[in-house]
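Practice problem: predict the structure.
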Amino acid sequence: MRVTAGFGFLTEFSIIKVSVTTQIRVPRFRTYVPLTCDIFTSSISTVPPWLLKRPLVDLSLSSFAKAETIPEVFKSKFLEICDRLQVFGQTYTDGSKTNNGTAAAAVSGDVVKSLRITSHDSIFTAELVALNLALDIIRRSRHKKFVLL
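Answer:
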């Protein structure tokens, strides 16, 4: 079994997440870092992936050519989609890359998670990190149905 110590803390500029795979290093690591660490175990699901319920993906907005469609049409269609999804817990994600850095965020109601990642990471990595942050929010939520926007 693999044991991982993980924690996050807020600095002046960003949230820093630290994860250390350990056997004997956890006690030593905890003595040097003045923070409490939750220790959790990771495990492999006993359910094969092909037996899991497939997520529903709405690609209806992709039928509009971005270069030929005015923003108001996208906004209107997006609001129509959101109207149908009000029974779900809504979580928004975004990954961003600029000359100043790369970051990811997820927002659900009043819960906001953001993380600055290395500037060498691509926008695709930032988007995946944002999805991972959203899954963390969902994992801790009381809702049973979710939609990622």
